């Protein structure tokens, strides 16, 4: 709920729902009013601010804690998770750690980083106008000098303002975003495809060779954060444990 709408609702005596409070808290986290690891106000203070009961605030905080956005500890208060949601719902792997766990040497190569129009295909996936300007980052991850993953990523600077100053020449967008960009919803797609000319050249494959493709989209509340297409050689596999 926008701040103006929230103030109007309170002035008209309308009680806010726990969903309204959850949305407001998510927006503050996105704007870095409360940064990762920060202690947020207690239930009593939030109830007074929102003009609602502590029970309503408690439900909002519990929902965000179950989603991995917040961490709640008895007598220690409630903090913004250092890596919101990532561990709570699906482990987003750090490519560097993934490669090093195989006993290989990790190397990273930045191929391009520029602000550009999202274009129709990307904009449709994220629910943005096709004229929306996003940060387009392309890079290559290598294991023992051999291509391991080609990463083609679009990042919404409206959702992650700090991305404009991110040091992608030395740190991959995968690693930077896991640490700096919380999200509340994600979509994962895994599929087989055939390498286009650029992908084939970067991965050292014949054009049209089968490749393993993973795509991921994330949002914080209703705001899209990133869309990434990760292309791997056909030998790539994913192993997960429950």
List keywords for this structure.
242 residues; alpha+beta; 6-stranded antiparallel β-sheet; two-stranded antiparallel ribbon; 9 helices
Question: Can you walk through the features of this model?
Answer:
This protein is α+β, with helices and mostly antiparallel strands. Helices cover 32% and strands 30% of the residues. It contains nine helices and eight strands. Strands 3-4-5-8-7-6 form a six-stranded antiparallel β-sheet. Strands 1-2 form a two-stranded antiparallel ribbon. A hairpin with a 3-residue loop joins strand 1 (70-73) and strand 2. Helix 2 (18-30) packs across helix 4 (54-66) and helix 3 (43-50) crosses helix 4. The chain is elongated. 28% of the residues are buried. Residues 7-11 and 85-89 have low confidence and may be disordered.
Number of helices: 9
Please state the CA-atom Rg, rounded to the nearest Å: 20 Å
Widest sheet: strand ordering: 3-4-5-8-7-6
**pLDDT averaged residue by residue:** 88
Task: Give the proportion of residues in helices.
Answer: 25-40%
By oligomeric state, this entry counts as: single chain
Going by helix content, strand content and strand pairing, the class is: alpha+beta
Q: Summarize the helix and strand pattern as letters.
A: HHHHEEHHEHEEHEHEE
- What is the number of strand segments? 8
Distance between the termini: 37 Å
What would the principal axes of the Cα set say about the shape? elongated
Strand content: 25-35%
The main pleated sheet reads as: 6 strands, antiparallel
Low-confidence stretches: 7-11, 85-89
Question: What's the short story on this structure?
Answer:
This protein is α+β, with helices and mostly antiparallel strands and 242 residues long.
